[in-house]
């Protein structure tokens, strides 16, 4: 797929969507949940099958030097760091931003136990019976679409090729704008774990944005933070990519670039499938191992804020015939 085309396929973190009115409702506008399809079909339905030229081919393996940045060291500048902050870590971040637009961070200050608890709660939610998950549906009265809640992304046309994934999408900040009626109550750890993880991610995002300001040669480390305003808008998107009997025909998520400032991604350990486009070649992004790393992805808003210095990468998710993939994206958008 041409890069210019890919970049038009955007993942937008909107707080609301225009509803599909019941009077105009047709069956194609309410697709089946992919978890249910995965358990029952031998072939993906035609609505999920990509045109031949867009089907996932084998991706290149990532280079051994795929960027991993120690955020603790990066966030502790010294007089000898020449303004970069963290010396070698700042150089690693600069190379990552120049070459990939995404990178892993370790030593980020979020407890491994909290990350494991949240990922475990996420898996438990998606494995509940359908009637339980539908209590948090993103369809009002089973018909009118809203961005928040459990289900699929909005279906805008009868010919739209659907992604092989389900999700639950929640507004987490500002805290007083949370719609807790859509926050799962089971497992009981879900709400508290998501709240704590969101709070911990504030520091991660702040430290990354400060380092990016230094790399950009700005006098004020708070430059990008100040541009965002004082009241952050943050969403959490939990993605479930069930096994697919024909992973060669479908996409978990089609190629896109994030319409965000930065995205913080937590992925279940060993869950492969994320791929990034670089110089016309798709590369597999290594999943986090026992290090409990987070993946940071530059969004299009940051590309604009930096006058194109930091580019938002085009990426996609492919599926597996055997393995489920669960991920959580914490999405920071510009006011």
Please give a structural write-up.
- Keywords: Iron, Metal-binding, Oxidoreductase.
- This is Fe2OG dioxygenase domain-containing protein.
- Residues 68-90 are annotated as: Disordered.
- One of its GO terms (molecular function) is oxidoreductase activity.
- Belongs to the iron/ascorbate-dependent oxidoreductase family.
- The model is unreliable at 1-24 (pLDDT under 50).
- The protein has one domain (3-333): Jelly Rolls.
- The radius of gyration is 20 Å and the shape is globular.
- The chain contains nine helices and 15 strands.
- The strands form three sheets. Strands 2-3-13-10-15-8-7-6 form an eight-stranded mixed sheet. It has a five-stranded mixed sheet with strand order 1-9-14-11-12, with no helix packed on it. Strands 4-5 form a two-stranded antiparallel sheet.
- With 335 residues, the chain is α+β, with helices and mostly antiparallel strands.
- Helix content is 25%, strand content 21%.
- The relative contact order is 0.20.
- The two termini are 31 Å apart.
